[in-house]
Specification:
66 residues; Epimerase domain-containing protein; mainly alpha
Length: 66
């Protein structure tokens, strides 16, 4: 499970010039989900760093980030 703080710590490394929160409140723990059926269909995990980079680029492209 990835926690909010882990995501922000990774973003600070990739994008050190953005303004980040100093404290975090994680939501309640969610149920475990099996991805076995998706994997049998050819789905695979993307690395967290790749997903974050693509997300930030997308937010930037639509004007949500400066």
């Amino acid at each position: 499970m990835i926690m909010a703080k882990d995501i922000v710590d990774k973003l600070k490394i990739i994008y050190p010039n953005y303004n980040y929160p100093n404290s975090f409140t994680d939501g309640k723990e969610e149920q475990k989900i099996s991805y076995e059926k998706l994997q049998k269909l050819g789905w695979s995990y993307r690395p967290l760093e790749e997903t974050l980079i693509d997300s930030i680029k997308s937010f930037h492209d639509v004007g949500q980030l400066d």
